[in-house]
Amino acid sequence: QNGSKKRVRRKINSDGSIEAKMEMNGAIEEEKVTMVECIDCKRKVGKYRNSMLIHTSTHHCDQPIFECTGEGCDKKWYSLSARTKEHIESKHGGNYSLLKDNRAVLMPMMKAKTSKLFPDYYSLATNLRELLQ
């Protein structure tokens, strides 16, 4: 973009926050992202609704978000990833109709579970978002 050079460096601080330093054409801009801890597994994720939901689906959801319904195929994914697309492209010739999307069915359960795993943060983030809409 217009010959500009951008470089980002991230560091996790002892308090769990992430310090991101972005250098754009020599000017340094700092951003601190607060991390929150899952009460079940103690992993830390960014204090964003989506980060908490992705953590829940990846580490605490026993039902797959996506399933391949191709004949003889029992592939399941617990989060959306590039591997999902790679599988459909390489094994099924890009036939995405074979990909069963369970998000609509699972989302209410995942939101409820996320609010239990991050009780002080997820509900607050959800309520603030709804107020701002």
UniProtKB/TrEMBL annotation:
<protein>
    <submittedName>
        <fullName>C2H2-type domain-containing protein</fullName>
    </submittedName>
</protein>
